[in-house]
Amino acid sequence: MLTVTGLARRHRQASRALFTDLALSVAAGEIVALVGESGIGKSTLLNCIAGLDTPDSGSIAIGSPAVDIVRLDEAARAALRARSIGFVFQAFHVLPTLTVAQNIGVPLLLAGVLPAEHAPRTQALLDDVGLAGFADRWPASLSGGELQRVAIARALVHRPRLILADEPTGNLDPRTAGQVLALLLERVREQGASALIVTHSRHVAESCDRILTLTPQGLE
Amino acid sequence: MRILAAWLIRAQFRTRRAATLLSMLAIALGVALGYSIHLINEAALADFARAMKTVQGEPDAVIAARDSAGGVPLPLLDEISSDPAVLIAAPVIETRVRIGSQRTPLRLIGIDVFSAPALMPALLPRDAERAATGGILDGGLYASPALLGELGLQAGATLTLLRGDQRWVATIRGDLPAAGRDDLLLVADIAWVQEHFGPADAVSEIRIRLAADSDLAGWRERVAASLPPALLLRVAEDDGERASNLSRAYRVNLNVLALVALLTGAFLVFATQLTAVAQRSTQFALLGVLGLPPRMRLLQVLLEGLAIGLPGALFGLVLGYALAMAFTRLLGGDLGGGYFAGNVPVIVPRLLPAAGFLLLGCAASLAGAAYPAWLNLRQPLVAALNNGFTAHPQRARERGRQLLLPAALALLAGGLLQLPALSGVPLAAYIAIALVLFIGVAGAPLLTQEIFGRAAGLRLPAPQRIALQNVAQAPLMAQVAASGLIVSFALTASMVIMVSSFRVAVDQWLDHVLPAPLYLRGKASPLPQELLTALERPEAPFLRVERSAHGSLTLDPRRPPVALLVRELDRDDPAARLPFTGAVLVPPAEMPVVWISEAMHEIYGSRPGQTLRLPVLGREVEVFVGGIWRDYARQFGAIVISREDHQRLGGDFRPNDLALWPRPGQEGAAGDWLAAQVAAHGLEVASSGAIRRLSLSIFDKSFAVTYALEAAAMVIGVFGLAVTLTASVWLRARELATLAALGFDQRMLRHSLMLEGALIAGIGLLLGLACGIAIGAVLTHVVNPQAFHWRMPLDVPWLALLAGAAATLAAAILASRQAARQATRLPLAQVLASSQ
Ligand SMILES: Nc1ncnc2c1ncn2[C@@H]1O[C@H](COP(=O)(O)OP(=O)(O)O)[C@@H](O)[C@H]1O
Ligand SMILES: [Mg+2]
């Protein structure tokens, strides 16, 4: 599903390279946890995989038939993200000027699905993430846990093959964090998608299929 | 994708209602002004053309004298009539007469009843049924229905027509059924008009219809070459061009005002969209991460600009139409410019120009949205998602490089100012003005960094320090907030400078051209001999009388004629009467000398020392150009010749204006003496003081519109500052919340923000003033000479400008108070807790 080979990245002005020859692969339907110290380069790795950052060398093959996102131009990367990748961020990032249902519908719009066909899908997802009845609410009136549920629904709505989550529970209290994470894993498994989840939580990591630790020497 | 775009636009309008509406309104105002000026002028030109068609018919060509005092000799009529290419040649005598003691002279047209019907159907007379005897050939007079209505007369009435000392008592035999609704005309047989008012052996014009198969261009060339120099041949197209030349400069000036409004509109779109982009940079980054194609980040902002511009421009068209209707009702077709006298023209909107103005409005708002759209495209996604808006997506350029662009633009502007006008429109100068504004706006961040970067090193209390640092370090927001003030204050200041320079110059000029205490005018007709002889008698209470005769010369059939003024002045000391702009040359003794006005110099390129060939007195005469004098009264050029020279050339001096110096102590008697003459001959008398007051009041009235626009521009500028400051408060919510958490109380926050607003406004006003003086200089020294053909010295009214700046600064501080209120209402705890 995802195969990273020979990846090297060094930020401008940085004293050392974050990684020089990194390899990683995630099988279809596999959920992998990525852990490591703060500042080690986890977010940078995720950004490279999503085509938001460009590695100095290496290749990142996504999907089948595999496409190397590194070789694509910006428009094609955006199209690939819209088609095959779902995101969950630490800071929720829900559009404040759209309703909950509209927020969830955005990836469908980007994938070219007509809004008339959205309703059943978004409704089902809202039920799944426990937000039935929230469809027409504005984000400003939602709690952090609720916002992250919206974000999870949005990450899944267009049935992407790969989910990337960067510390998805970092802004939530432990109890809510547990609930939200369980929900995320459950939904990803149900859709049969692959996922790469960055986390600091031992508990989260252990619920995944595999744990990778990023160190200055590479992945362990 | 389209649905997403629509969602975002709707959200945008909902959250930024005031700014969006204001931008729309400014665009609407620009379009409305431009469009209404276009409509009014179009209608006035059509009206002018229609009026001309009534009087002149639709001949293929006209032969006329270049000198308004001259005529077309009768033998030429026979010659033209026998030309095989000519189908009809209709002679016409046109003159101005007064009816009894009525003041305004009327047109009396003498036609040849055999040739006129085919060429001038609108002048066909109709005998009244009750008319007892005689028709047009027996000396009957025919009046247009409008004139009959105005005089309250009917066929059968007897009129006394006066022109100078000549008079004709004639009876109205009927009317002119085909004349226009508003035309005030008299028609009679050409022989009768000639007998009473002259000219002997000549006619005013020959109007010609060519045979159907003849080649107009070839015929024109052949005949024009064979005509004596005192005559000219004009064809139908020349007339249209001449009419449009008449009002071009005035139109250009009004159009600039429309452009100012449009430019302010574009700027407001810029400010609105830039703050909108900055506020939503995280949202756009998120959409980018979710897979929004990069070009959509550009298109979305442009689309939002268009969503402001299109309704704005549409509203502008409607408003423009309404304005045009209202203005023509109030002021007539020349907007008070005095070029097309009289009637209310009919406004007919056509599709193509309307579409043009619609596009112009859209283009202005797109131009305003272009830079924000580009910035939005260039936002680095990850950084924008985590930290919000980056003002400089590329690396900041070095100081030297930053200076390079303004310097290059300044050079370019300087070069443009050397270029001549493009068919009467000072286009290059307008582009230079836009460049000056651009330089001012682009220079703002440099200046802010330079000044406040240094001041931030001072020891200051915390709120002031924070304000200084914010202004110094957030140059983009400061630039946007300041640029509104730069643009609006620069335009306002430049207008004030231009108008003030002009007014001061006109004031001085009036001093020079009105040396006598009293003036007497005979309007278009010569003064009666009786009056002139009475003035020469010793008992007349005048110390000195100077007479002058006004005529006109058509030097180029496509341009309005040049005034020819025959004046009683000293050939060796013309500077005693004329305000010369440069050296006065001593003419060769045997040669007649003329002094030309600035407009004559600018339009026809004549210069002092040159020998001109003028078509006066029925021939071409060589005259020496002795100097250039300033004339703010005749925009299309004027030539002054002394009475001695004119008479030496064989001219017949028939004065129509007098300058009078009453004997000292006899001012009252002089007034009474004149009053009697005025009553007897239907003349007009005015003191130099009254003329001066009237001139200045007309001047002030014609610039009144500009004051309203200036005020509007300043309001928009201050509002722009308020909008951007408020936006920047929201953008910096986290920073402000942090400050609050660190112990800033609400008062300190408010003070800090108000100081920031004041500093930004100060920079904006400073740069605006600098740009305004530069633009004012361009307007007075380049645009005015190119458009109106007159020059004037620059006069900067410092007191008015500084007072305006102070008032604006006060308004800006009040506006930033509003923004500061917003800041203190921020839900600080919430802002700190969320990262958004
Ligand atoms: N755009 C950038 N330019 C320079 N350095 C960066 C940039 N982005 C991240 N870094 C640096 O790269 C390192 C890794 O950052 P990141 O991938 O965010 O770490 P993590 O997510 O593991 O905490 C950090 O030291 C950070 O300072
Ligand atoms: Mg990270």
TrEMBL record, chain A:
<dbReference type="GO" id="GO:0005524">
    <property type="term" value="F:ATP binding"/>
</dbReference>
<dbReference type="GO" id="GO:0022857">
    <property type="term" value="F:transmembrane transporter activity"/>
</dbReference>
<keyword id="KW-0067">ATP-binding</keyword>
<protein>
    <submittedName>
        <fullName>Lipoprotein-releasing system ATP-binding protein LolD</fullName>
        <ecNumber>3.6.3.-</ecNumber>
    </submittedName>
</protein>
<dbReference type="GO" id="GO:0005886">
    <property type="term" value="C:plasma membrane"/>
</dbReference>
<dbReference type="GO" id="GO:0016887">
    <property type="term" value="F:ATP hydrolysis activity"/>
</dbReference>
<dbReference type="InterPro" id="IPR003439">
    <property type="entry name" value="ABC_transporter-like_ATP-bd"/>
</dbReference>
<dbReference type="Pfam" id="PF00005">
    <property type="entry name" value="ABC_tran"/>
</dbReference>
<feature type="domain" description="ABC transporter">
    <location>
        <begin position="2"/>
        <end position="220"/>
    </location>
</feature>
<keyword id="KW-0472">Membrane</keyword>
<keyword id="KW-0378">Hydrolase</keyword>
<dbReference type="InterPro" id="IPR003593">
    <property type="entry name" value="AAA+_ATPase"/>
</dbReference>
<dbReference type="InterPro" id="IPR017911">
    <property type="entry name" value="MacB-like_ATP-bd"/>
</dbReference>
<dbReference type="InterPro" id="IPR015854">
    <property type="entry name" value="ABC_transpr_LolD-like"/>
</dbReference>
<keyword id="KW-0813">Transport</keyword>
<dbReference type="InterPro" id="IPR027417">
    <property type="entry name" value="P-loop_NTPase"/>
</dbReference>
<keyword id="KW-1003">Cell membrane</keyword>
<dbReference type="InterPro" id="IPR017871">
    <property type="entry name" value="ABC_transporter-like_CS"/>
</dbReference>
<keyword id="KW-0449">Lipoprotein</keyword>
<keyword id="KW-0547">Nucleotide-binding</keyword>
Automatic annotation (TrEMBL), chain B:
<feature type="transmembrane region" description="Helical">
    <location>
        <begin position="798"/>
        <end position="815"/>
    </location>
</feature>
<keyword id="KW-0472">Membrane</keyword>
<feature type="transmembrane region" description="Helical">
    <location>
        <begin position="256"/>
        <end position="277"/>
    </location>
</feature>
<feature type="transmembrane region" description="Helical">
    <location>
        <begin position="298"/>
        <end position="327"/>
    </location>
</feature>
<feature type="transmembrane region" description="Helical">
    <location>
        <begin position="480"/>
        <end position="502"/>
    </location>
</feature>
<keyword id="KW-0449">Lipoprotein</keyword>
<feature type="domain" description="ABC3 transporter permease C-terminal">
    <location>
        <begin position="712"/>
        <end position="822"/>
    </location>
</feature>
<dbReference type="InterPro" id="IPR003838">
    <property type="entry name" value="ABC3_permease_C"/>
</dbReference>
<dbReference type="GO" id="GO:0005886">
    <property type="term" value="C:plasma membrane"/>
</dbReference>
<dbReference type="Pfam" id="PF02687">
    <property type="entry name" value="FtsX"/>
</dbReference>
<feature type="transmembrane region" description="Helical">
    <location>
        <begin position="403"/>
        <end position="421"/>
    </location>
</feature>
<feature type="transmembrane region" description="Helical">
    <location>
        <begin position="427"/>
        <end position="447"/>
    </location>
</feature>
<dbReference type="InterPro" id="IPR038766">
    <property type="entry name" value="Membrane_comp_ABC_pdt"/>
</dbReference>
<feature type="transmembrane region" description="Helical">
    <location>
        <begin position="711"/>
        <end position="733"/>
    </location>
</feature>
<feature type="domain" description="ABC3 transporter permease C-terminal">
    <location>
        <begin position="256"/>
        <end position="378"/>
    </location>
</feature>
<protein>
    <submittedName>
        <fullName>Lipoprotein releasing system, transmembrane protein, LolC/E family</fullName>
    </submittedName>
</protein>
<keyword id="KW-0812">Transmembrane</keyword>
<keyword id="KW-1133">Transmembrane helix</keyword>
<feature type="transmembrane region" description="Helical">
    <location>
        <begin position="753"/>
        <end position="778"/>
    </location>
</feature>
<keyword id="KW-1003">Cell membrane</keyword>
<feature type="transmembrane region" description="Helical">
    <location>
        <begin position="347"/>
        <end position="371"/>
    </location>
</feature>
